[in-house]
Amino acid sequence: MTEPRRHWVLFLASGLGVGYLPVCPGTFGTLIAVPLSLLINRFAAANPWLGAIGIVVLALVAVWLAGDAARLVERKDPRLVVIDEIAGFVLANFFTTSWVGLIIAFGLFRFFDIAKIFPARRAEALPGGFGIVMDDLVAGLYTFICLRLLSLMAPV
């Protein structure tokens, strides 16, 4: 891999560099996801299919970047890779319409990401970028479901 490509893969996989922070890189990776999540939600408000396509494309790019970054640093799930948190949070926050909902999504997503509730731990065992990203997509899906259930009581 050429040096410029290596640099870009690591820069993007690390969430524009936040994955290199010495503490809580996953939490900071989730914070980096907030503007992207809001942008995708804006598109989804106009056309839900457009938002869903955005999430699928982001997830596929995340799998590719996470796998390449893991190979570059020769680790199965390197701490510096936070593109998985970014993809997971964008799914978690899909259709959220308020700041309160965003904050709830953030807290729930971090909980589910850390807790690795079934089948997240199994998903993490998948090879390459799929294993790195899929457990975060499971956490994102759990958060999304919780938010949709909460939205039955109040707008989130």
Task: Kindly describe this structure.
The chain is an all-alpha fold. It has one domain (24-151). It has helices at 3-13, 25-46, 48-73, 83-92, 99-115, 120-124, 128-151. It is globular.
Question: Could you name the key traits of this structure?
Answer:
mainly alpha; 74% helix; globular; 156 residues
In short:
With about 160 residues, this protein is mostly helical.
Sequence-ordered SSE layout with sheet pairings:
Blueprint: H1 3-13, H2 25-46, H3 48-73, H4 83-92, H5 99-115, H6 120-124, H7 128-151
- As residue ranges, the low-confidence spans are none
Task: Report how far the terminal alpha carbons are from each other.
Answer: 44 Å
Number of helices: 7
For the residues shown, what is the average pLDDT? Answer: 95
N to C succession of SSEs: HHHHHHH
Computed CA radius of gyration, to the nearest angstrom: 15 Å
